[in-house]
Amino acid sequence: MKRLFISIALSLAVLSPARADEGMWLPVLISQRIADMQAKGCRLTAEDIYSVNKASLKDAIVLFGSGCTGEIISDQGLLFTNHHCGYSFIQKHSNVEHDYLKDGFWAMGRDEELPNPGLTVSFLERMEDVTDIILEGITEEVEPAERDSLVKVRSAKLVSEASAKGKGLSARVEALYYGNQYFLFVYKIYRDIRLVGAPPSSIGKFGGDTDNWMWPRHTGDFSIFRIYAGKDNEPAEYSKDNVPFRPKKSLRISLAGVSDGDFTFVYGCPGTTREYVLSDEVRYVSEVSDPAKIALRTQRLAIQKKYMSQDQAVRIKYSSKQANVANAWKKWQGESKGIRKMNTVAGKQEYEARFDEWAGGTGYEGLTRKMHRLYSEREPFFLAYEYYNETVRAIEILNFASAIHSRLRNKDAKDGYAGAFFKDYYQPIDEEIFTAMMEGFGEGVSKGLLPNYYTDKLQEYGSVEAWKKDLFSKSLFTDRDKVLALGPDDKAIVETDPAYEMFDAFRKWFETYIKPVVDRLNKEINLANRQYMKGQMEFNKEKVFYPDANLTLRVAYGHVEGYSPADGAWYKPVSTLKGIIEKDNPDIFDYDIPQKLRDLYAKGGLDGQPVCFLATNHTTGGNSGSPVLNADGDLIGINFDRVWEGTMSDYVFDPEVCRNVSLDVRYLLFNISRIGNASYLFKEMKFTGGSIKKYR
Ligand code: ARG
Ligand code: GLU
Fold first, then answer.
1. What sign results for the dihedral spanned by CA atoms 204, 210, 213, 217?
2. Residues 285-344: pLDDT tens digits?
3. 321 CA → ligand 1 middle, Å
4. 526 touches 175 (CB < 8 A)
5. What pLDDT digit, counting tens, does each position of 186-235 carry?
6. Rounded Cα–Cα distance for residues 69 and 415 (Å)
7. Is the pTM of this model over 0.70?
8. Which of 84, 405, 559, 618 is catalytic?
9. For atom 6 of ligand 2, which residue has the closest CA?
10. Helix (H) or strand (E) holding 271
11. Of the ligands numbered here, which is closest to the C-alpha atom of 219?
12. 587 an active-site residue?
C-alpha cells in the first residue's frame, strides 16, 4: 500500500497535472477550468466562453478552410485570420497586372470584395458528450472489429440526425482519449467567403523562412475576409445577391495592449498532439524520424537555394515550395532537440515502469510490453513509409507523370495542370534532388524492405547518377510541348515513360508491402493506446487530463511572458516597429519592407508601435489565425506560430520555453489604416481600452 502511494506521488511529480499553462481544454467542459482561469486573472464566466443557450465567445470562432482558425470581429461577418492561412486564396486572385501577394489587396467597398470558390468557414453549433450512446453495451469482451463497426454505425446515425436539423449543418463524431470518450460536433458551414484585405507579403510574410518559428518576430501575419449568407442569414453558395452574415457574436477589439504577465487565452482549433503516448513513440520521433527527415530536407533546401540565389526567375518559381519544405524542417529540429533536452524518453520510461508495477494483477498487466512489441514491429515499415513520402514524393517529375496519367482523358484538366507545373518547374533542381533523394532512400530504408525495382535499377546503371541521367534524357515529362500533345488514347506512351514507370513501381511497392503493414499496426497501436489511456487515468487519479488535439475547438490559457532561448539570454515578450526597421534591408528578400512603411517610419513617432508578442498558451498547428483574448474576452492578438525551442509541446510541454507567437492586433489596425488606407473598416468594429482615433 505504502509503495503504491509512493509510486502515485512520484508519477504525479513527473507527469504532474498541467503545471502552469499546459493544456487544450474542451470549451463545453470549461466550467472545470474556470476557477483556475479566474485565479490567473480571467474575468469571464464559463457561460461567457461556451454556451448553447446564449451567444458566447464560441459563436465568434470558426474553423477557417480545413486547417486554420478565424474570428468574427464585426456584426457584418468580418473575419480575421493569418496571412499564411489566406495565402493560397490571395495567390489565386493575383496575376501580373495586380499582384496582391506582392502589393497587398484592399477592397474599398463591399462591391470590391473578392469571392473564393472552395473556401468555407465552419461555426461550431454545439458539442455534446455522446459516449454513453456510442459505447452502450460495449464491454471489454467485445471484439475490436465488432466494436469498430458498432461505433461507426452509431456515429453515422447521430451524424445524420444532427445534420438533418438545419441548413448547412454538418456533424462529426470524434473520438477523444483514443476512443474512451466520444463527442458529437455539429457545425454550420458557410461557403461564400470573400477577401477584404491583405497586407503586402513584405509585411504579411515579413521575415519569411529566416524568422519562421523564431523570436524576435515582426510578421504582420493577417488577412481579412467577410462571410456572406443568403437573405435568411443561412449558408448559401456564392451569389452576388448574398448579404453579409450577421453573427450571433463578434469580438470586441482591445486597444489597451499587452504587458508582461497579463492573462491571455487562445480559442481555436489545434490539429494534433500526442501527449500520452509511450516512450517508444517519442523515441522514434525524436531519434529516428525527425533526424532522418531533417537530413533529407536539408539537402533539398540546399539544392533549391543554390539555384534560387543564382537566378531571380528560379527564386520566384521555388519560393513557395521552399517555404513549405522549410516549415516542417525547422519545426522538427526544435521538436527533437526539445524532447532530448527534456529527457522525455527516459522520463516516460520511468513512468511506464511505475505504471507496470501498478498494473500487476489489473486488466492492464502486460499492456506496455505488448505495445513495445507493436512499436518495434512497426518501426522499419513506418520508416520506409516516411522515406517514401520524403523522397519519392519529393521528385517533381515522378508526381507530375502520375498526375498527367490520371488526367489524360480530360484535355483541359491535363493541359491546365501541365501549364501550372511548368510555370514553376526548374529541371536542374529536380535532377539534383532526384540523386540526393534516391541515394538517401537507399541508405535509410532497411535493406530487406527495399523495392526490387530500386535494387535492379542500381544494378543496371551502377549509380543513382547514371540512372537519373538516363531517366531525364528519355522522359517526355521534361518537355511541355510533348505533354500538351498527349491525347486521350496515349495511355501506353505514358505508361512506358521511365518517369511514370518509376513512380508506378514505387507506388505499387508502397501500397503492397509498406502501407498495409503500417495501417494494420497503427490500428493495433491505437487500440492499445485506448487501453493505455484508460489505464493512465486510473493509475494517475489526481492528474487532470485534457484530450489530445484533433482539430476540434479548444481553449488554451496562459500569460504574456518572454523566455530564455540560451544561457545568458532573455527574450522580452513584445516586439515593435523599431525592430522591423532594424531588420529592413532591400537586398535581403525576407527583410525588404514596402517603401511606404519606410516613409511612414521616417516621419517619426512609430518606434513604440507594437508588432508581435509571446505568451505561454499551449498551441499547435491549426491554431494559426486563432484569436488571442484578454481577461475580458476582447481580442488582443492573432496567433500564428510557436518558438522553435518549444515545438516539442506536441509531445511534452515545457513551461520554461513553450511560447505561442501572436500578432498584436494594434499592428493589424495600423496596417488597415496606414498601409491599406482602409480605415473605413473601423466603422464596423467595436473597440475597448482606448480610442481608435490614433489609428485613423
Ligand atoms: N510556422 C508557421 C506555421 O506553421 C507559419 C508557416 C508559414 N510561414 C512560412 N514562412 N513558411 O506553421
Ligand atoms: N503556423 C502554424 C499553423 O499554421 C501554427 C504554428 C504551430 O503552433 O504549429 O497552424
1. negative
2. 999 999 999 999 999 999 999 999 999 889 888 988 998 899 999 999 999 999 999 999
3. 12
4. no
5. 999 999 999 999 999 999 999 999 999 999 999 999 999 999 999 999 99
6. 34
7. yes
8. 84
9. 641
10. none
11. 1
12. no
